[in-house]
Write a structure and sequence with these properties.
about 475 residues; mainly beta; Tachylectin-2, Chain A; 2 domains; about 5% helix; binds beta-D-fructofuranose; Glyco_hydro_beta-prop_sf; Sucrose-6-phosphate hydrolase; glycosidase
Length: about 475
């Protein structure tokens, strides 16, 4: 075991006495923004969900974690297990302590192989002489109880033809039962792609199969594909990934980077896409990953955040959270997403509230609300404080837009814009999960989703409306962590 401790490349093994307790005290000073029913980091920075798997009894949820500050430093995999996405138990984390992960355990996925959890991940390393990044692809084996059994490097460096940006292996079984994994990559000519590997078994050395081609995807300007995920829903192939550099459009792909999906058919390495779209149109959503081995359902989690963003909670030494687990369905080749049934089952009884002009609603900031827009325009303003801050959601019959201009922003948040739009005709059902500094919005039973952070201190739980609406409201159950 090597104890890394070099500036921000410091592992948990190097934590000094009382250091984590001091960080936890800093986090506790945040009175306004810590979520109740979203999984968030105890301290430091959280990013991508990793290693998501169902072991036959419970789910394993890992995420990218830098424990010591709200910055991207030495990445660990924080590890929890859960049966219901409400009660979580801490399991053994993946801590960088080998030469093949000297600068962090970067993202990857898991596969259940017999009774073992095989976690494929990128070992980020930098050469001492010139700081050149050398990516390893590694394998860590956990047992179902969540204990680490072993880890080893599988591949050193990117294959010929690719730059140092070669990472995020996501394993899956091929249609003929082989172990495969797909990595996000940048070609030497600075274009983004994904590369597939195959192994006969976990002791094998991976061999390269080739690039995944998606002819229908406009890769213009795209310099890197991160976090690829190949899966199958009801007989259709689905590819989910996070391309970087895609051109922004007026009403979609509005962030700096985007989580995207393609639905179609995978023919060898060619993905014949019948549909390509953005997965979520809110301000903060990236690096989604699915749990593909649960009978009859596909569950997705994502990072509610984006690379390069800072948030007002950084001063309290915590940054970001994961989305609620979402079940994916295909409806006419479109990917629909809605929180899993466990989240709905754990809501308090729905209460109906007549919304006229202005209403105060107890616990609005940790609530689930639902209403029918009847395809007519509305303008809603949520949470007000003395400084006139509020979050607004409006619909004009074609376009829904979320506006966080009148909320606290960091410079980086402002840089990325103040409104997010979503084109949707025939808007019927609107569902919103508010959790203190985050909202997840689902339209028409998951046809579109918008996930965003927002920061309003000392807020009043008030809604103002320009139209009478019948709201149904309930409280989701808070997460418990042991
Ligand atoms: C995506 C990402 C991955 C990488 C990880 C590092 O957010 O950049 O490509 O493995 O985060 O934390």
């Amino acid at each position: 075991m090597i104890i890394f401790n070099n500036g921000k490349y410091k592992s948990l093994h190097a934590a000094t006495q009382g250091e984590l307790d001091a960080l936890e005290s800093a986090v506790k000073k945040d009175q306004d923004f810590r979520p109740h029913f979203h999984l968030t980091t105890p301290t430091g920075l959280l990013n991508d969900p990793n290693g998501l798997i169902f072991d036959g009894e419970k789910f394993h949820v890992f995420y990218q974690w830098f424990p010591f500050d709200a910055i991207h430093g030495m990445k660990h995999w924080k590890h929890y297990t859960t049966k219901d996405f409400i009660h979580y138990e801490s399991a053994q984390d993946l801590i960088p302590d080998e030469h093949f992960e000297s600068h962090g355990c970067y993202s990857g996925g898991a596969l259940l192989v017999e009774d073992k959890i095989a976690c494929f991940y990128t070992g980020n390393t930098r050469r001492a002489s010139d700081n050149q990044r050398i990516p390893f692809q590694n394998l860590a084996i956990f047992d179902k109880a969540g204990q680490l059994i072993s880890k080893r490097p599988l591949l050193e460096n990117a294959p010929t033809g690719y730059s140092e940006h070669f990472r995020d292996p996501k394993p899956y079984y091929s249609k003929d039962g082989k172990i495969r994994f797909v990595c996000g990559a940048q070609r030497e000519n600075f274009t983004g792609t994904a590369v597939i590997f195959e192994m006969a078994n976990l002791n094998d050395t991976p061999r390269i199969i080739g690039e995944l081609a998606i002819p229908a995807f406009d890769n213009h300007g795209v310099f890197m594909w991160e976090c690829p995920d190949l899966l199958n829903i009801g007989g259709k192939d689905v590819f989910i990934w996070s391309p970087q550099g895609k051109q922004r459009e007026a009403h979609q792909f509005q962030n700096n980077y985007h989580a995207t999906y393609a639905v179609g058919e995978l023919d060898h390495q060619t993905f014949n896409a019948e549909q390509i779209a953005e997965l979520d149109q809110g301000f903060d959503f990236y690096a989604p990953q699915t749990i593909a081995n649960v009978a009859d359902r596909t569950i997705l989690l994502a990072w509610i955040g984006l690379p390069d963003l800072t948030y007002p909670t950084d001063e309290f030494k915590w940054h970001s959270m994961l989305t609620l687990p979402r079940e994916l369905r295909l409806v006419q080749n479109k990917l629909y997403q809605q929180p899993v049934q466990e989240i709905y089952q754990n809501l308090t009884a729905l209460q109906t509230i007549q919304l006229e002009e202005q209403v105060e609603i107890a616990h609005l900031d940790t609530s689930y609300i639902k209403f029918n827009a009847n395809n007519a325009a509305f303008h809603l303003a949520f949470f007000h404080n003395e400084q006139g801050e509020k979050l607004t959601l409006s619909y004009d019959g074609k376009l829904l837009y979320l506006d966080r201009s009148h909320t606290a922003q960091t410079v980086w948040m402002q840089k990325f814009g103040r409104q997010r739009y979503c084109e949707i005709e025939n808007l019927e059902q609107v569902e919103i999960f508010f959790d203190r500094s985050v909202c997840e919005i689902f339209l028409n039973g998951g046809e579109k989703a918008m996930t965003s952070r927002f920061f309003i201190r000392q807020r009043k739980n008030i809604v103002k409306t320009d139209r009478t609406l019948q709201l149904e409201i309930a409280q989701p159950k808070a997460i418990e962590i042991k």
